[in-house]
Write a structure and sequence with these properties.
CATH architecture of the largest domain in chain A: 3-Layer(aba) Sandwich
Number of helices of chain B: 11
CATH topology of the largest domain in chain A: Rossmann fold
Largest sheet of chain B: 2 strands, antiparallel
Shape of chain B: globular
Distance between the termini of chain B: 45 Å
Number of helices of chain A: 11
Low-confidence stretches of chain A: none
Mean pLDDT of chain A: 85
Distance between the termini of chain A: 36 Å
CATH superfamily of the largest domain in chain A: P-loop containing nucleotide triphosphate hydrolases
Strand order of the largest sheet of chain B: 1-2
Strand content of chain B: under 5%
Order of helices and strands of chain A: EHEEHEHEHHHEHEHEEHEEEHEH
Largest interface: A-B, 52 and 40 residues
CATH class of the largest domain in chain A: Alpha Beta
Number of domains of chain B: 1
Largest sheet of chain A: 6 strands, mixed
Low-confidence stretches of chain B: 1-27
Structural class of chain B: mainly alpha
Number of domains of chain A: 2
Helix content of chain B: 55-70%
Shape of chain A: globular
Strand order of the largest sheet of chain A: 5-6-7-3-8-9
Oligomer: heterodimer
Radius of gyration of chain A: 25 Å
Radius of gyration of chain B: 23 Å
Strand content of chain A: 25-35%
Number of strands of chain B: 2
Chain lengths: 329, 297
């Protein structure tokens, strides 16, 4: 099957007005402006097959949102090309716009003073959804999210979590083939986060929609996505399975050693980076090739109660990947 | 068959396939889309009507001072007619520009467009198969309609109280022309303000521009006084500009001051300006979007 999203060498450079300090600078700025070129996205390429659920991972300002904006046709790239559903997004053809949805966390597309049901009716007309399909989709989504009894209530009276659920329903009503989600669970409590995750997962299995999601919450990503694209400073640094991040970037293991004494020996730093101390238990961060060597050295010198070798938590790994990106750019 | 009564059936296969791209637009559904915008807007407007009645009455409070002022001016001048306006016609004119403005004023339209550009809510018109100007005009039409219907009572009372200032009422054809001039005034007002709002694509801050344009409009559209009172040169200039159609022109049509071929010609020019601003707003929007796509978003 042909890929549903195809991105080749996509780049976006912004021109930013460089402001000078003080009054003198402000006056100078009126006559002669100095601009600085900022590359938000640089030469990003990837393809996504129909039905994939892919996470876009990266620190703030890495270029995730800029990429999503290009894929939804809001902005044009400076270089490179993208095809979504066979269309060039920034041509904004209605035929394309009827087949995808972009949800940006907390950005409201519902009418504030009216019940969500009125906004849904409006979407029905905007997208030309047949009555029968509209009823069925609406019923399916409201029960998936457990908000069937809230659609007649003015949107302004809903909680943030309920509003986000309504936004999601509005975005899915026309059964988009491609769903772009930018931080869909931002600012939500864990219960609402899990509800939205569950809805996305169920909806995805049922309708085989293609989803590209950005999120800061590793929970979202671990729950939903098998494939991850990691972007830092506008560059794609990883494209593969979530678990594979460990093999690519996880150069370290955690040695968890329990000592018999109440307090562990103080001079463990020659063996590895002391990562955490909890009573008699110490976490040592050790490079992977040196695990066996370190372990025997520690065993030779100290008596220990228990030892285990672990992978560092994924979240820490990701943070490290982000930092590496910073160092190389 | 009712879908509501049935329990959700998730185990079944997806029923109807998604509509083929571009193939689901039956004729007339384009109108339905904007008709729906209009209806939803109508519902939205109905949520705020408490403060409305009082606001309308307060709007006419300055009329009392205006009436007294013009009384003094006419008595002081010792003439029964100034620039072709009798005292009664003058007061009737000043009441009638309120009706003109009821159609042509677009509170918050330009500022709203500029704000949507700035804070990014504009996105929804770019992502959805929806046209910003089509959407906004349907929305405004709904606002105007609720406003006019709700305002009918206070306006009716005020015009009834002031009925003594209306010496004659327009004939059927003239009244029809008056209605046409009001609808065109709505279109000019809408597209003019929309075009001003598009400036937001180029400048982040538009409030000062808006303030200047709106203040100027107050004078040159003839809201403050009939344009005929100005020196002949300025009368010529202002009558050549489109702004008079937002207040002056409909009022003098009602008063029967423009008749016959002049009336037809005047309506023709008014229609031209409506078209002019519609095209201008479209062009600015298209250019603005190009710029938005390159820099902002």
């Amino acid at each position: 099957m042909a890929p549903i999203i195809e991105v080749t060498g996509l780049s976006k450079t912004y021109r930013v007005f460089r402001k000078k300090d003080g009054l003198k600078g402000a006056v100078q700025g009126l006559f002669k402006r100095e601009y600085k070129m900022v590359e938000a996205v640089g030469d990003v390429s990837f393809t996504i097959e129909p039905g994939e659920f892919v996470a876009f991972l990266g620190p703030n300002g890495a270029g995730k949102t800029t990429t999503l904006k290009m894929l939804s046709g809001l902005i044009y790239p400076s270089r490179g090309d993208a095809r979504v559903l066979g269309f060039t997004p920034w041509e904004r053809k209605d035929a394309f716009r009827r087949q995808f949805s972009l949800v940006m966390g907390q950005k409201n597309q519902l009418w504030w003073d009216l019940p969500a049901a009125d906004s849904f009716e409006l979407h029905k007309e905007i997208y030309g959804i047949p009555e029968r399909q509209f009823r069925e989709t609406l019923e399916e989504l409201t029960s998936l999210l457990g908000v069937a009894d809230l659609t007649r209530q003015a949107v302004r009276e809903l909680s943030l979590g309920e509003r986000m659920k309504m936004e999601l329903i509005a975005a899915l009503l026309h059964r988009p083939k491609v769903l772009l989600l930018d931080e869909p669970t931002i600012g939500l409590d864990v219960v609402a986060q899990v509800a939205i995750q569950k809805c996305l997962r169920d909806y995805h299995t049922r309708h085989n929609v293609t989803v590209l999601l950005t999120s800061h919450y590793m929970r979202d990503i671990e729950a939903l996505c098998r494939r991850v694209l990691v972007i830092t400073h506008g560059k794609l640094v990883y494209d593969g399975e979530l678990a594979g991040i460990r093999d690519t970037f996880g150069q370290e293991k955690i040695l968890r050693i329990e000592f018999p004494a109440e307090e562990p020996p103080p001079d463990l730093s020659p063996y590895g980076q002391v990562h955490g101390v909890d009573g008699p238990t110490v976490d040592l961060r050790v490079d992977r090739p040196r695990v066996a060597e370190t372990l025997s050295a520690v065993l030779a010198r100290y008596t220990i109660v228990d030892v285990s070798v672990q992978d560092p938590p994924l979240e820490q790994l990701i943070t490290k990947v982000f930092e590496q990106g910073k160092a190389t750019v | 068959m009712s879908y509501v009564a049935e329990p959700p059936r998730f185990d079944l296969e997806e029923p109807a396939p998604a509509p083929a791209p571009g193939g689901d637009l039956v004729p007339g559904s384009l109108w339905r889309k904007y008709y729906r915008v209009w209806r939803v807007s109508l519902a939205e407007r109905m949520t705020y009507r408490g403060d409305f009645l009082l606001g309308t009455f307060l709007r006419f409070l300055p009329m009392i001072t205006t009436i007294l002022l013009w009384q003094a001016i006419y008595e002081g001048s010792g003439q029964s007619s100034l620039a072709g306006f009798t005292y009664n016609e003058m007061i009737a004119y000043l009441l009638l520009v309120h009706i003109s403005r009821m159609f042509s004023s677009m509170p918050g339209l330009a500022a709203g467009i500029a704000r949507e550009i700035r804070d990014g809510t504009l996105k929804k018109y770019l992502i959805q198969p929806l046209d910003l100007l089509g959407y906004l005009i349907a929305y405004r039409a709904a606002h105007k309609m609720t406003y006019i219907v709700t305002a009918a009572i206070p306006y009716g009372i005020i015009f009834f109280l002031c009925r003594g200032f209306f010496d004659t009422l327009p004939s059927g054809p003239v009244f029809l022309a008056y209605l046409v001039s009001l609808i065109l005034a709505f279109l000019i007002g809408f597209y003019f303000e929309a075009a001003v709002g598009m400036v937001g694509f180029w400048f982040l801050e538009v409030t000062s521009v808006l303030y200047i344009v709106m203040t100027l409009n107050y004078f040159i559209s003839g809201q403050m006084l009939p344009l005929d009172l100005l020196p002949p040169f300025w009368v010529g200039v202002l009558k050549a500009l489109p702004f008079q159609y937002m207040a002056y022109f409909p009022a003098v049509v009602f008063l029967g001051k423009v008749q016959g071929p002049d009336l037809v010609w005047g309506l023709g020019i008014e229609a031209f300006w409506a078209l002019f601003f519609a095209v201008l707003a479209r062009v600015l929007y298209a250019r603005g979007l190009k710029r938005y796509g390159a820099y902002g978003g």
